Amino acid sequence: MKELVRTNDPTVIAYASALLQGEEIDCFHMDVHMSVLEGSLGVLPRRIMVADRDLFRARAVLRDNGIPCGDEG
User: Which residues form a coiled coil (predicted)?
Assistant: First the structure.
């Protein structure tokens, strides 16, 4: 799995997930339960991960919709 998005903004996570789901790209949310450790302050970023085979297409979907994503391989 590769990291697609890392952000503190829960609306970006929700929007990106909906876009990926619309394109039938499976994604996995990481660090969702870290709010227990941080006290729900939103300090720690959350990540969206995708399978290696879907990374190129997922990045294209997010870029086309104005969501910045990491371009590291």
Answer: none
